[in-house]
Amino acid sequence: MIPSIQQLNKETPQNFIEAVNTLFETAPPLADRLLAARPYESYLQLIDYAEALCLGNELNDQEKLDVINAHPRIGASKAGLSAMSLKEQGYSERQGAVSSKDEKINTELARLNQEYEDKYGFKFVVFVAGRPRAQIIPVIQERIDSGDRQKEMTTGMVDMMKIARDRLQKATVSKI
After folding, report:
1. Within the chain, where are the H helices?
2. Is residue 167 domain-resident?
3. What is the predicted pLDDT for the residue at 175?
């Protein structure tokens, strides 16, 4: 659960960053800038500011890579995912064996993730929006085939913000 925006504005730096990381995963360059820009009138304002930082010239190239690479790989091992990522990627929360079908999908996603990272130098980020992981395979393949690194960085950052807005909506409606 995330605190109200009024409480977030008063939090210690560590608690502020922990709350913000719920929305954005662990991305220190982004979290540090968001901390420095307090106070916010709403979480939507905070996400809009984060988007402006990521898509503008406020972050250098390495910081942008750090931000985008903070996201888990789609189809990654359940053990390494946050609770939000588990749900977003369609895993059940209970620990247990992955089905053979899921294992095949995850193997293909791992191969495609590696191909994408080798080509572009950063992780593939997509707003899953409840789609099964199998439906992401043609999406990542299409994005690999596009060959436009700058467009891919922008698409990944935009999708990160879609993920953050979706996480915010799921976390609370009344605290927006």
Report:
1. 5-10, 13-24, 28-36, 43-55, 61-68, 83-88, 100-120, 136-146, 149-171
2. no
3. 46
Mean pLDDT of the chain: 86
Do the Cβ atoms of 153 and 116 come closer than 8 Å?
Answer: no
Cα dihedral: 101, 106, 112, 114 (round 10):
-150
> Does residue 32 surpass a pLDDT of 60?
yes
pLDDT of residue 80: 47
**What distance in Å separates the CA atoms of residue 130 and residue 55, rounded to the nearest whole number?**
25
* Tokens (6 digits) for 140: 């990542």
Residues 6+ apart with CB under 8 A from 37: 49
- The reply to whether 54 falls in a domain is yes
84 and 38 in a common domain: no
CA distance 161 to 158: 5
Same domain, 63 and 77: no
C-alpha span between 105 and 79 (Å, rounded): 17
pLDDT digits (tens, 9 = 90+) for 100-111: 888 899 999 999
| Domain range for 5 | 1-70
**Chain-centre distance for alpha carbon 56:** 18
CA distance 45 to 148: 30
Give a yes or no: residue 161 inside a domain: no
Domain count for the chain, please give it: 2
17, 78: one domain: no
